[in-house]
Each structure stands twice: as structure tokens, then as C-alpha cells.
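Schema walk-through. Below, the input block comes first and the output block second. Nothing else is stored per chain. Lengths vary across the set, and this one has 439 residues.
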Amino acid sequence: MKRFLPVCVVVALAAMPCDAHEMSDSFTQKTTTAKKILGRLSLGGYGEAVYSHNFYSDNYLRYSHPENYQGQSHGRFDVPHVAISIGFDFGKGWSMGSEIEFEHGGYEAATEIETEEAGEYETEVERGGEVALEQFWIQKSFMPQLNVRAGLMVVPVGQTNAYHLPNEFFGVYRPEGENTILPCTWREVGLTIWGRLGRHWRYEAMVMPGLDSERFGNQGWIHDGSASPYEFKIGNTVAGALRIDNTSVPGLKLSVSGYVGNSFSNTLYPTANAKNDGIHGTVAIVAAGFIYNDHNVIVRGSFDYGHLSDSKHITDFNRTMSKDSPSKRQDVAEAAIAAGLEAGYNLFGLSPRLTAERQKLYVFGRFDYYDSMHTMEVGTPAGWCGRKRIAAGLNYYPIPQVIIKGEYAIGLLDKSTSGLKYNNEPSISVGVAYTGWFL
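--- output ---
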């Protein structure tokens, strides 16, 4: 036995380097493949957590009987948005993008056995909120001037839809005007063509399903018209949107966008009868915006005007809907308007040390005016739907990806149309947010 032991050892030792080399080569190949995959993968997102103390009542009767709700207040903790974005470059011009968003903490439900109800199973909502697929698209890039994208995408209309990340607005919450009268973040399944023309021009054109007029209302105008209560989006009508951006002036970006599409027949409820002949409910929106970012100063502004044809007919039609329908059964305005302006100055830009550390502290102010019932085809607009909002606060960036926000704001309600003395709506809000790409 001792005579053959060295032979066995030699054979074993001779075999080991070969296996080790194979394992090493395989590991190298897998590592190289993983690096290539990671090089094509994009992973990121953003999130917000806030607290607000509102020095006014949140009772649903506060506008119909404002005299009964003076001097009241309430506080709110919230996680408005948390989004996870994943993208991948397949090569040869093909890529994909996706984003899943949790709004207000997401949605939670549980099934329990109720001992007081004969042991029946009962499902209860434990936390209100939403979990939604914000974006999912496949793109083919032919050249910088021409890219074609299909899937679920953000509609390129308005300033907030284009710039809704926490580092793209000063307030603790997204700008209130556009967020009230337009869907935000407005997303639709459709087809988009976009590209860059020269150094300073970018265009984006999108075809998508029309809005659903059954879900229009007084406080939000068409805000809820993009949502569908069904497992699919009704596509009886087709709409279009166009956006053009220009950056010819250093530090300044100018944008103009628009939307047009019919909305009345875009519902499951039958509308094909003589009474509804010629009714289209055409929604037309024009929006303009700008962003100036230079010399430690950021100024952002936006303006939106929207018009709805056949608004009286839509109001009458929606009021006939049953109580269990998705319709709000409210007056719908012929036109809505929103305008906003904010400006901030980075105080830390005065310090070379803090600038080198990439810290920023913006002192900002913001003004909004919006009215979801700007004009009515027939009738008198609700005075509380038109308001001004003034805000001031701080945005602190300890690092570029993290923002600590605080603001004081007051909503000044329009008292000129109805004679009622509505209560103004002051509030204090603080929040923390992050945004960035991990890969």
C-alpha cells in the first residue's frame, strides 16, 4: 500500500490544476457576462415621506357650511410616492424601461375569520393607498433624431408630468395647481415618437386612448379621467399629445405642450343614441413652462389652460348615473386654468467649502393660482374651486441624492363668486426625500 501512495498523490495533484483552470475560466466568463449585463442595467427610483399640520378643517362640509368649521386643524403623516425604476439596454437600439410606484404607503388588506359573525371569512382594508405600474415601455432607437417607444408612458403635457421627481420642485408636495386640474402623474398606454434636433431642440409626440368624461368632476376637472376602474383602459376614442423643449439659452429650458382628444363616448356605458348625437366632449389643453438653473438660482414657471366642449351635456349625463357607478355626478366646467411660479436661491453657493462638498440650501418662495371651474357653459362656478396659494420654505441637500424639505403655505380661497366666507387654508409641512440611480 505504501508503494502506491505516491503514485495516487501524483495523479491527484496532476488533475487538480486542470480542474482549477476550468473553474477559473468559467468564473471569469461568468464575471465578464455579469459585468456586461450590469453595464446595460439601470436601477433607481425616488421616495418621499412627509408630515403636515393643516390649520383648517378636513370635514367634507367645510365648503358648503364654512361658518361651522372655523379654527379647526388636523395633522397628517404620509408617504406620497415611492417609485422603483428598472431599465435595460438589449443592444441594437432596443431597450426597455419600467417603473412601479407605491402611493401613500401602498395598499394592504387582510382576510380574517370573524368570531362574531358565525366564523365567516372577511376581507378588511388595513391601509389605504395605491400600488401601480407607472411605466412600462419598449423602445427602438434608430438615431438621436428618431426613437419609437410603445407601452405605458407618461403623457408629455404640463410641467409637473415632465418633472415630478422630488428634486424637480421645491415644495414638500408636488405643485398644487397642475396636480389638481390635470392627471398627475398622467400615464397612458400608447405609442410615442421622440428625438433631438440639433443641440437645443427636443420633440415628443404621443398617441393614446382618450379620457373618460364619466369620471370628470368639479374640484379636479379632468384629473380622474385618465384612470380606469376596470382591468383595461377603454379605447373608443384616440387622443394625441405633443411637446417641444428648447435649451438655446444657457441655463434656460423652455417647453410648450398640448393635448386634444374626445372623451364622451370613451366609457362602457352606452352612449349611442339620438340624444347624444354630435356630442364629443373634446378636451383641448395647452401648456407652457420654463426652468432657469444657473448662478445658484432656480426659477420654475408653468401655465395651463384647458377647454372641454359639451360640458353641460356631460354634466347632465353624469348626474343621471347610478350611485354605484364610477361617475362623480358633479358639475363639470367648460374651462380650467392653472399657473405657478417658484424661485429659490442656494445660500451654500456662497461658501467654497460647502460647494466642494456638494451641499446645497435653497431658500424658496412659490405662488400658485388655479381654478378647476374657471368658466361654466351654464351655471355659476363654485367659489372654493378657485384659489391662490403662497408658500415659502427651505430645501437642504446634505448630499445630492437626499433632500430635507420644509415649508409654510396658505391657500387663499376665492370669495367673489358665491358670497360665502370660505376659511383660508394655512399649513406647515416637513419632509425627507431621495432620488437617484443605483446602477
